[in-house]
Amino acid sequence: MLSRYLKSPNPLFSLRSLPCTPNPISVPDPIPNLNPSFRPSPDRLFSSSWLSEPGNPIIQWPSLPKPNPHPNPNANPNPTPDPTSPNLNAFSLISNLFTDPSVSPGPVLHAQLDRSAIEPDPALLLAVFDRFGSSPKLLHSLFLWAQKRPGFRPDPKLLDAVVNALAKAREFDAAWKLVLDHVGDGEEENESLVSVKTFAIMIRRYARAGMSKLAIRTYEFAKDNKSIVDSGSEMSLFEILIDSLCKEGSVREASEYFLWKKELDLSWVPSIRVYNIMLNGWFRSRKLKQGERLWEEMKKENVRPSVVTYGTLVEGYCRMRRVEKALEMVGDMTREGIAPNAIVYNPIIDALAEAGRFKEALGMLERFHVLEIGPTDSTYNSLIKGFCKAADLVGASKILKMMISRGLIPSPTTYNYFFRYFSRCGKVEEGMNLYAKLIESGYTPDRLTYHLLVKMLCEEGKLDMAVRVSKEMRHNGYDMDLATSTMLIHLLCKMHRLEEAFAEFEDMIRRGIVPQYLTFQRMKAELKRQGMTEMAQKLCKLMSSVPYSGNLPNTYGGDREDAFTRRKSIIRKAKAFSDMLKDCKDPSELRQYRNSSENAVSSEKYVMKDIEGK
Length: 614
Prior knowledge:
This protein has 614 residues and is mainly alpha-helical. It contains 30 helices and no strands. The protein has a domain at 88-183. Helix 17 packs parallel to helix 19 (377-389) and helix 21 (412-425) runs antiparallel to helix 22.
């Protein structure tokens, strides 16, 4: 039935051939707004761009339903305080200081805050932390200023926010000082500030930084502090430790510590969730043998599996492209008397769609309907992701329409799969068309949406539009993070707008973000090439003021352009050589061409190695 539906005529939207010249392209005819009072302000949409010009849209998007009231994992949790809140004016003043390039953390910021007569409270600071999560130095400086104000006392939520901001910036010494200063020392007012959640933040940040031993030592320190971590929360914190290590690729370290803890205390019984996390960790790192060995050990130790256990195994086999084995696991769990649910079926549909096996994926979707829970939004998202990956936008749009017709609300994650496709294929008009429709209909894009849009615009050389979207990103409560700032700097360098690139680089340092070493090298080389030696010296001084590694990876593949240009030139030469072979009758001409051809092959190998290594 579903297969026939997908093959039916009248797709949800159609693509029209793009004009060869940059003619204005419009937002589609108005669709019903989700909020009747919603009217995009001029700065919400690009009034001077092609988005506001009359004409026919490239893509006819469906009428979008009311956005899901449930929070999106990537969404900004608290972009601004309530407009009726007395703190709104204070929030605006602090925001202006944070975005002022002349205001640096420390005495300058503190003096400005003193002159503002702001009376800080935890709610106000939390709103600022939520808005400027990528400015750890400024946030820490704000917190230190607030601590000196009479009557100010942080609450546990604010303390955790400060610890998270510092640890995210790898300022672990400052984070530990804050934790140790507020660990209960017997006084009632101090005992409630540091909690299990505080140590969980430190553990996750250490794991993300690749410091697995320090993550383990943090757990050991926390579990020995019985005033914070009792016997009930100790297992929960251990699960967080194992989960953090596994998610960041330190599965072997997690396994070794897990086994050591079992041998140290034979009476210690780990929870089923610990085993599930370990299974997931091995499969995520594509260590099939270790995952299957752990599964066999669980059966020998009579560890009773849960539906999550089987769901983890199914997802693991699907990740390894062994869908048939995953289906065997579904049969095993059914014989064990455990009913499959969305946790089990979603990974199978995801794997089938990822592999382009849409007929089987849709067949599994039909099978899903017999369950009481039925398909979830994740189920449809998996199908949309698969169709977008296969460049089948019509198929993806039909799944989107099916999802909406069954009462499920598309989330930013759903639309981000379309944005991924547009970004990958350089379809700027289609991407901005969808973005305008979402804004017009009352949707709030998440951070990933903005990241994909900026990436697409930077890679297509649309600098002015990239700057506009980055401003829109800030306007909607998302601070520029390392990835978006890096992409913007690289594009500014490419367009020889070096003063603006330097200003963005300087602002990253001011906010506490360490630029990538490759970004620094590229800017320095370009500044010297343009004879801007004084600015190059300032750049070196800025970089020397922060700790950095010369081995930092490059998250923006700007170098790929040169590599692809060289490859394109090589292919063109190869085609010319092929044409010459057809017409050439003199062997000496071939010998003359041989050296250049060999050099081209050698260069091509280097180019491919360079691209694959990114």
